[in-house]
Amino acid sequence: MESYMRNFDAIALLLSCIGTLCWIVCFWWMHRISSRQNATLKELHAMTARIEKLSRTEHDLIRDVHPQVSEIKEKVENVREAVSSEKN
Question: pTM for the whole thing?
């Protein structure tokens, strides 16, 4: 019976050590995954900031060009009317 208890204690100690090592590996792995996620989030944030800056610039350009487009359309319509009236 005493040798059975020694074997049981040895197995329990071995399993405890294996469990502890598993926890250490798990924490290291989670830390690694978290670091990669943080790096990816930083890249996405930088990309989003660049896209937002480009969108603002594009919006400003469109706002500047928009009135000119309607003026050009009016001039084209005037020219079209003048040309069509000359043909008739």
Answer: 0.51
